[in-house]
Amino acid sequence: MKQKLAVIAILMIIAGFGMIHSTTGIMEIVSMLLIGIGCAYLLFLLLTNKSEARNSKTEDD
Question: Are 15 and 36 in contact (CB under 8 A)?
């Protein structure tokens, strides 16, 4: 499930960069939201995987 959501987040970022220079203001806002949500989810995955790896190391010792 995490892999599918990560792929969706990457596609959201790509779509956001594609729409960022639109002629309408609302599309620029939507593109910024797509980029922000995608980046936030990828950062969340990075931080949670890092803490899980750290916890498993301490349990092994």
Answer: no
